């Protein structure tokens, strides 16, 4: 009986020890589950935040796409406007040069006509070059008046005056042509400076909004007009 009580005590001690071990394992498992639950909650919160951020990024991407399309249309309109301005400047310059050439040709034709008239007047046989007529007039004058008329000499001042007036008119025409050329050059310079400013603004807008890739395509289009990204006219 003593042995049976001892065995029972040992069994109870082993059972109590086992129960203590199981309780410790249960506590560890409970702690692990609590930590896991906290991690799951954190992951859910992060997932929700990521979804919200992804939606915001999608909205920003759509806005950027719309802005890029707007800037593309604006850039194309700017390029077309600059081309029209350059074409207008070139047409005005061409028309001015053609009108200047026509005026110079008309002036040369008028001068040649005047020269021909002067030569014809010299070559033409007039009343003062007819010797017989001159002798008849001189003899007649002596018979009527009885006195010989004095010969009047031409001082040449009239010819010099006409030549001076002609030189003054030619200088005035040349001065007017010079003023016209200055006005044309000023107009062309203002047009080119306006195009240069627009190109600089377009370059800044494209650099900060759509990047350098599309900007390169635009500068390829601008190269047809003879311009570079810095807004300067390239020599052809």
TrEMBL record:
The keyword Coiled coil applies. Keywords: Coiled coil. It comes from Monilinia fructigena. Residues 19-74 form a coiled coil. This is Uncharacterized protein.
